[in-house]
Design a protein that fits this description.
- By secondary structure, this protein is mainly alpha-helical.
- The chain has two domains: 16-64, Arc Repressor Mutant, subunit A, CATH 1.10.10.60; 73-211, Orthogonal Bundle (Tetracycline Repressor, domain 2), CATH 1.10.357.
- It has helices at 16-38, 45-52, 56-63, 66-85, 95-110, 113-124, 135-152, 159-183, 187-207.
- The radius of gyration is 22 Å and the shape is elongated.
Length: 216
Amino acid sequence: MTGTPHAPPRSTRRTQAERTAETRAKIIEACIACIGELGFQRTTAAEITRRAGVTWGAVQHQFGDKDGILSAVLEDSFARFAERLTQIPDQAAPLAERVDAFVERAWDHFGSDHYRSTFEILLSVETVSDGGAPIWQGEMFRRWNEIWSGVFSDTQLSGPASIVLQRYTVAALTGIAAMRMLEETGGQHRIEELALLKETLLHTLQRQESVFTIAR
Protein backbone atom coordinates (compact mmCIF):
# COMPACT_ATOMS: atom_id res chain seq x y z
CA MET A 1 0.00 0.00 0.00
CA THR A 2 1.41 3.26 -1.11
CA GLY A 3 0.84 6.31 1.04
CA THR A 4 0.54 9.83 -0.16
CA PRO A 5 4.04 11.18 -0.70
CA HIS A 6 5.05 14.14 1.43
CA ALA A 7 6.48 17.18 -0.23
CA PRO A 8 10.09 17.82 0.77
CA PRO A 9 10.48 20.62 3.31
CA ARG A 10 11.28 23.95 1.81
CA SER A 11 14.69 25.33 2.61
CA THR A 12 14.58 28.45 4.69
CA ARG A 13 16.55 31.14 2.96
CA ARG A 14 18.02 33.90 5.06
CA THR A 15 17.37 37.47 4.11
CA GLN A 16 20.16 39.86 3.22
CA ALA A 17 19.61 41.65 6.53
CA GLU A 18 20.02 38.36 8.45
CA ARG A 19 23.22 37.51 6.58
CA THR A 20 24.57 40.99 7.22
CA ALA A 21 23.77 40.78 10.93
CA GLU A 22 25.40 37.34 11.16
CA THR A 23 28.58 38.57 9.47
CA ARG A 24 28.69 41.62 11.69
CA ALA A 25 28.28 39.49 14.82
CA LYS A 26 31.04 37.10 13.70
CA ILE A 27 33.48 39.97 13.21
CA ILE A 28 32.66 41.52 16.60
CA GLU A 29 33.01 38.19 18.39
CA ALA A 30 36.28 37.47 16.57
CA CYS A 31 37.65 40.82 17.71
CA ILE A 32 36.62 40.18 21.33
CA ALA A 33 38.11 36.69 21.31
CA CYS A 34 41.34 37.90 19.72
CA ILE A 35 41.85 40.67 22.29
CA GLY A 36 41.02 38.24 25.09
CA GLU A 37 43.62 35.71 23.90
CA LEU A 38 46.35 37.88 22.37
CA GLY A 39 45.86 41.31 23.91
CA PHE A 40 44.99 44.57 22.21
CA GLN A 41 48.39 45.27 20.65
CA ARG A 42 48.57 41.89 18.90
CA THR A 43 45.00 42.06 17.62
CA THR A 44 45.40 42.89 13.94
CA ALA A 45 42.82 43.37 11.26
CA ALA A 46 44.21 40.29 9.50
CA GLU A 47 43.77 38.14 12.62
CA ILE A 48 40.21 39.37 13.14
CA THR A 49 39.20 38.54 9.58
CA ARG A 50 40.90 35.12 9.79
CA ARG A 51 39.02 34.20 12.95
CA ALA A 52 35.73 35.52 11.61
CA GLY A 53 36.17 33.60 8.36
CA VAL A 54 35.46 36.66 6.21
CA THR A 55 37.36 38.81 3.76
CA TRP A 56 38.77 42.25 4.50
CA GLY A 57 36.30 43.58 1.93
CA ALA A 58 33.44 42.28 4.10
CA VAL A 59 34.95 44.02 7.13
CA GLN A 60 35.28 47.30 5.25
CA HIS A 61 31.69 47.00 4.07
CA GLN A 62 30.46 46.51 7.64
CA PHE A 63 32.77 48.73 9.65
CA GLY A 64 35.06 50.71 7.36
CA ASP A 65 38.31 49.88 9.16
CA LYS A 66 39.71 48.42 12.39
CA ASP A 67 38.66 51.48 14.39
CA GLY A 68 35.13 50.90 13.17
CA ILE A 69 35.27 47.35 14.54
CA LEU A 70 36.50 48.61 17.91
CA SER A 71 33.71 51.18 18.08
CA ALA A 72 31.19 48.44 17.30
CA VAL A 73 32.62 46.28 20.09
CA LEU A 74 32.12 49.16 22.54
CA GLU A 75 28.57 49.72 21.34
CA ASP A 76 27.85 46.00 21.68
CA SER A 77 29.28 46.07 25.21
CA PHE A 78 27.08 49.01 26.20
CA ALA A 79 24.03 47.21 24.79
CA ARG A 80 24.82 44.02 26.76
CA PHE A 81 25.39 46.11 29.86
CA ALA A 82 22.03 47.88 29.54
CA GLU A 83 20.22 44.60 28.86
CA ARG A 84 21.63 42.99 32.01
CA LEU A 85 20.63 45.96 34.15
CA THR A 86 17.01 45.74 33.00
CA GLN A 87 16.72 42.38 34.80
CA ILE A 88 16.16 44.04 38.18
CA PRO A 89 13.06 44.07 40.42
CA ASP A 90 10.98 47.24 40.29
CA GLN A 91 10.34 49.63 43.17
CA ALA A 92 7.72 47.34 44.65
CA ALA A 93 10.59 45.14 45.85
CA PRO A 94 12.47 45.93 49.10
CA LEU A 95 15.47 48.21 48.67
CA ALA A 96 17.90 45.51 49.81
CA GLU A 97 16.62 43.14 47.13
CA ARG A 98 17.02 45.79 44.45
CA VAL A 99 20.55 46.67 45.56
CA ASP A 100 21.52 43.00 45.55
CA ALA A 101 20.12 42.44 42.05
CA PHE A 102 21.64 45.67 40.74
CA VAL A 103 25.16 44.78 41.88
CA GLU A 104 24.86 41.17 40.71
CA ARG A 105 23.65 42.13 37.23
CA ALA A 106 26.28 44.86 36.93
CA TRP A 107 28.99 42.39 37.95
CA ASP A 108 27.73 39.91 35.34
CA HIS A 109 28.91 42.54 32.88
CA PHE A 110 32.05 43.90 34.56
CA GLY A 111 33.25 40.40 35.45
CA SER A 112 32.72 38.94 31.98
CA ASP A 113 35.37 38.03 29.42
CA HIS A 114 33.51 40.37 27.05
CA TYR A 115 34.16 43.33 29.35
CA ARG A 116 37.78 42.31 29.72
CA SER A 117 38.29 42.87 26.01
CA THR A 118 36.20 46.03 26.15
CA PHE A 119 38.36 47.35 28.97
CA GLU A 120 41.53 46.85 26.92
CA ILE A 121 39.96 48.84 24.10
CA LEU A 122 39.00 51.66 26.46
CA LEU A 123 42.56 51.83 27.77
CA SER A 124 44.18 51.73 24.35
CA VAL A 125 42.05 53.73 21.92
CA GLU A 126 41.95 57.51 21.65
CA THR A 127 38.21 58.12 22.00
CA VAL A 128 38.11 61.69 23.31
CA SER A 129 35.32 64.14 22.61
CA ASP A 130 35.70 67.87 22.00
CA GLY A 131 35.06 68.47 25.69
CA GLY A 132 38.07 66.36 26.67
CA ALA A 133 36.14 63.45 28.22
CA PRO A 134 36.22 59.96 26.68
CA ILE A 135 33.27 59.41 24.36
CA TRP A 136 32.53 56.01 25.93
CA GLN A 137 32.26 57.58 29.38
CA GLY A 138 29.27 59.75 28.55
CA GLU A 139 27.46 56.89 26.84
CA MET A 140 28.10 54.43 29.67
CA PHE A 141 26.98 56.83 32.38
CA ARG A 142 23.92 57.87 30.36
CA ARG A 143 22.72 54.28 30.14
CA TRP A 144 23.75 53.57 33.73
CA ASN A 145 21.79 56.61 34.99
CA GLU A 146 18.66 55.58 33.08
CA ILE A 147 18.57 52.22 34.84
CA TRP A 148 19.67 53.61 38.22
CA SER A 149 16.95 56.28 38.15
CA GLY A 150 14.28 53.70 37.45
CA VAL A 151 15.43 51.35 40.22
CA PHE A 152 16.33 53.81 43.00
CA SER A 153 14.30 56.96 42.28
CA ASP A 154 12.23 56.41 45.45
CA THR A 155 15.35 57.01 47.59
CA GLN A 156 15.07 60.73 46.75
CA LEU A 157 18.77 61.43 46.43
CA SER A 158 19.53 64.76 44.82
CA GLY A 159 21.14 64.85 41.39
CA PRO A 160 24.70 65.56 42.62
CA ALA A 161 24.51 62.94 45.38
CA SER A 162 23.14 60.33 42.98
CA ILE A 163 25.95 60.99 40.49
CA VAL A 164 28.58 60.61 43.22
CA LEU A 165 27.12 57.27 44.31
CA GLN A 166 26.83 56.03 40.73
CA ARG A 167 30.43 56.93 39.92
CA TYR A 168 31.59 55.27 43.13
CA THR A 169 29.74 52.09 42.13
CA VAL A 170 31.29 52.09 38.65
CA ALA A 171 34.74 52.72 40.15
CA ALA A 172 34.32 49.87 42.64
CA LEU A 173 33.18 47.39 39.99
CA THR A 174 35.94 48.46 37.60
CA GLY A 175 38.52 48.02 40.35
CA ILE A 176 37.25 44.56 41.26
CA ALA A 177 37.29 43.61 37.57
CA ALA A 178 40.86 44.91 37.22
CA MET A 179 41.97 42.83 40.19
CA ARG A 180 40.36 39.78 38.58
CA MET A 181 42.36 40.41 35.41
CA LEU A 182 45.60 40.73 37.36
CA GLU A 183 45.11 37.82 39.76
CA GLU A 184 43.07 35.27 37.78
CA THR A 185 42.23 33.84 41.22
CA GLY A 186 40.66 35.09 44.40
CA GLY A 187 37.04 34.21 43.71
CA GLN A 188 36.24 34.27 47.42
CA HIS A 189 37.65 37.76 47.72
CA ARG A 190 35.37 38.96 44.93
CA ILE A 191 32.34 37.55 46.71
CA GLU A 192 33.33 39.48 49.81
CA GLU A 193 34.12 42.63 47.82
CA LEU A 194 30.75 42.56 46.08
CA ALA A 195 29.02 41.96 49.41
CA LEU A 196 30.80 45.02 50.82
CA LEU A 197 29.70 47.09 47.82
CA LYS A 198 26.08 45.99 48.32
CA GLU A 199 26.28 46.87 52.02
CA THR A 200 27.76 50.29 51.23
CA LEU A 201 25.11 51.08 48.63
CA LEU A 202 22.25 49.96 50.84
CA HIS A 203 23.57 51.91 53.83
CA THR A 204 24.10 55.03 51.72
CA LEU A 205 20.73 54.88 49.97
CA GLN A 206 18.95 54.41 53.30
CA ARG A 207 20.75 57.35 54.91
CA GLN A 208 20.47 59.41 51.73
CA GLU A 209 21.88 62.95 51.86
CA SER A 210 23.39 62.74 55.32
CA VAL A 211 26.47 60.83 54.16
CA PHE A 212 27.38 63.23 51.34
CA THR A 213 29.49 66.30 51.43
CA ILE A 214 29.28 67.58 47.89
CA ALA A 215 31.96 70.09 46.92
CA ARG A 216 30.37 73.24 45.54
